[in-house]
């Protein structure tokens, strides 16, 4: 019998371990989103687009070689009258011709840039375009970390809310049943029964809303990962509450103003816009190119004509048939330097310069906007961490106090010193405290992520560290 019990106990532990192993961690969800999320794949594609700017800019300095070939066939035929002087006066003699030719040629043209200011500046600008693409991709990756974290903990919060509502529903159902029995024996008034019924109905509505909220939260997480999860790891009771290091709000703001990726990207955008002005001004500058050309023309043809006989002794009006064949093969080549000075382009070049001056101005204003946003985000995240640490501690005490208060109220209800309303109110206070306590812990973690993102130092190791705070032995329903 003891052996059977041991086998049964081992089986229970194995099943429990399988259930716990199925719980999904924050890091696992992020790694799945990194593969599946369309926005990060879009960012990767945009980065590869920018990478092509460098070889395209370099190609302008390399020789440009073009081969052009043509083949033409011509057919000509017709007739006319030629006037000939004879003893009898002018005589109109009809003539006709029929012929054609085959022509073909090919042309090899080489152009090598010697000096083009706009091409040189475009090549320099390409490095900044590539650098901005790398930064923008990293922005998207850090943004995905935050987005996954927010939606992951939103699911946990929705589960907590639903769990609290379902627990409240069960408790109010029991409270309603007790109230009805007490009313039947005359211990309480009908008002208490109605109060219990109202609490039960409200809690039922809260359960329905909680299920809808959870479904929405799960769907938003699926949007990133492409799959649904049923079990999630959540922070354990030993969640560390540590003040950010350094413990200096201004130090974090200064770091953010130096390393925030959105700020770095905006600064590069200002530099690119400034280069755009220089590039467009190059439209006013002379250009110098080395050109070379080789051409081959080949033509052959045959024409048959019928016309008056040129022999003066021939009878008047007599004609003769003549056939002409032609053949031509000509080659030519040239090499030289082409110097071009733009004189007037209809005002287009000046307009493009003005356009990029405004683009540069817009980029500078965008940089100022991002700078202010970065400072606000860093301060808000730092203060959020400090506030949530205090809230977590306070709500933990509030939860413990609410539990004690509920137990005392239920004891008072049993002896008749407290009413049904008192019990329902105490139970609702406990459920709210438990839900707020869990939400405060999630917000504390999210503010850590937001602070590191604002400082430009958020990476996968931070998620791995947060992942260690998740209790592997606790799964949500």
Order of helices and strands: HHHHEEHHEHHEEHHHE
Main sheet: strand order: 1-2-4-5
Q: What is the number of E strands? A: 6
Q: What would you give as the CATH superfamily of the largest domain? A: Outer membrane efflux proteins (OEP)
The second-level CATH architecture of the largest domain is Up-down Bundle
User: Average pLDDT value?
Assistant: 85
Might you state the CATH topology name of the largest domain? Outer membrane efflux proteins (OEP)
Number of domains: 2
CATH class of the largest domain: Mainly Alpha
Q: Mind describing the biggest β-sheet? A: 4 strands, antiparallel
Overall structural class, as computed from helix and strand content, comes to alpha+beta
Low-confidence parts: 1-21, 473-477
Rg estimate, integer Å = 44 Å
SSE layout:
Layout: H1 2-21, H2 26-36, H3 38-51, H4 53-59, E1 64-86, E2 89-115, H5 117-184, H6 190-225, E3 233-235, H7 249-259, H8 261-281, E4 287-308, E5 319-340, H9 348-415, H10 420-454, H11 460-469, E6 470-475
Antiparallel strand pairs: 1-2, 2-4, 3-6, 4-5
Helix pairs in contact: 2-5, 3-5, 4-5, 5-6, 5-8, 5-10, 7-9, 8-9, 9-10
């Amino acid at each position: 019998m003891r052996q059977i019990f041991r086998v049964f106990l081992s089986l229970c532990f194995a099943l429990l371990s399988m259930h716990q192993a199925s719980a999904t961690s924050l890091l696992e969800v992020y790694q799945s989103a990194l593969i599946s999320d369309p926005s990060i794949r879009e960012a990767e594609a945009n980065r590869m687009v920018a990478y092509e700017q460098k070889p395209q800019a370099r190609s302008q300095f390399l020789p440009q070689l073009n081969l052009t070939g043509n083949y033409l066939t011509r057919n000509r035929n017709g007739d006319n009258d030629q006037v000939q002087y004879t003893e009898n006066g002018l005589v109109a003699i009809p003539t006709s011709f029929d012929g054609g030719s085959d022509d073909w040629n090919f042309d090899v043209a080489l152009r090598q840039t010697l000096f083009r200011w706009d091409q040189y500046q475009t090549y320099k600008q390409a490095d900044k375009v590539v650098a901005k693409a790398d930064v923008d991709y990293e922005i998207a990756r850090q943004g995905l970390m935050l987005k996954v974290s927010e939606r992951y903990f939103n699911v946990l919060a929705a589960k907590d809310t639903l769990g609290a509502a379902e627990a409240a529903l069960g408790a109010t159902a029991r409270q309603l049943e007790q109230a009805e029995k007490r009313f039947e024996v005359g211990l309480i008034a009908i008002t208490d029964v109605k109060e219990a019924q109202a609490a039960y109905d409200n809690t039922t509505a809260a359960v329905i809303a909680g299920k809808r909220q959870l479904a929405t939260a799960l769907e938003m997480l699926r949007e990133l990962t492409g799959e649904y999860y049923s079990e999630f790891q959540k922070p354990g009771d030993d969640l560390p509450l540590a003040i950010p290091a350094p413990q200096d709000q201004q130090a974090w703001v200064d770091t953010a103003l130096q390393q925030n990726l959105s700020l770095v990207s905006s600064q590069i955008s200002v530099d690119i816009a400034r280069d755009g002005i220089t590039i467009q001004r190059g439209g006013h500058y002379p250009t110098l190119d080395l050109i070379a050309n080789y051409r081959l023309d080949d033509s052959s043809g045959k024409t048959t004509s019928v016309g008056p006989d040129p022999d003066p002794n021939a009878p008047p009006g007599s004609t003769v048939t003549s056939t002409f064949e032609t053949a031509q093969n000509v080659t030519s080549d040239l090499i030289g330097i082409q110097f071009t000075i733009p004189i007037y382009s209809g005002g287009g070049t000046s307009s493009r310069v003005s356009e990029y001056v405004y683009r540069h101005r817009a980029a500078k204003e965008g940089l100022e906007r991002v700078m202010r946003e970065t400072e606000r985000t860093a301060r808000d995240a730092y203060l959020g961490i400090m506030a949530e640490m205090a809230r977590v501690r306070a709500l933990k005490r509030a939860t413990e106090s609410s539990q004690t208060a509920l137990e005392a109220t239920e004891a008072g209800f049993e002896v008749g010193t407290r009413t049904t309303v008192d019990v329902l109110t105490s139970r609702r206070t406990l459920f709210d405290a438990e839900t707020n306590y869990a939400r405060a812990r999630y917000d504390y973690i999210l503010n850590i992520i937001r602070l590191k993102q604002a400082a430009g130092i958020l990476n996968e190791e931070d998620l791995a560290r947060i992942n260690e705070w998740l209790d592997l032995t606790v799964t949500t329903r």
